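Deliverable D4.2, example record:
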Amino acid sequence: MQLKNYMEDLVWERVDEIIAGTKKACSCPKCRFDVVALALNALPPRYVVTDQGETYAKIRGLEAQFNVDVLTAVSNAIVVVNGHPRHDEK
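Output generated by the structure prediction step:
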């Protein structure tokens, strides 16, 4: 048995798509991880342990408001990371 924050999977599934649709957003690995970390800190965790719990989390992840929350958190994180990137300038 493993403890897992299902929200992390949802954010990772969307981050590349959202970065690609944002002008001047850096997609380097360091910036991607920073965006995901900031977004996850802004979202409520969805921990699952059993298969039944994971099923509930997946169903919850399909709700429209939940997807808007993920989109908003990732978009806000991109703004913060773009304003203060931690990588070397290219």
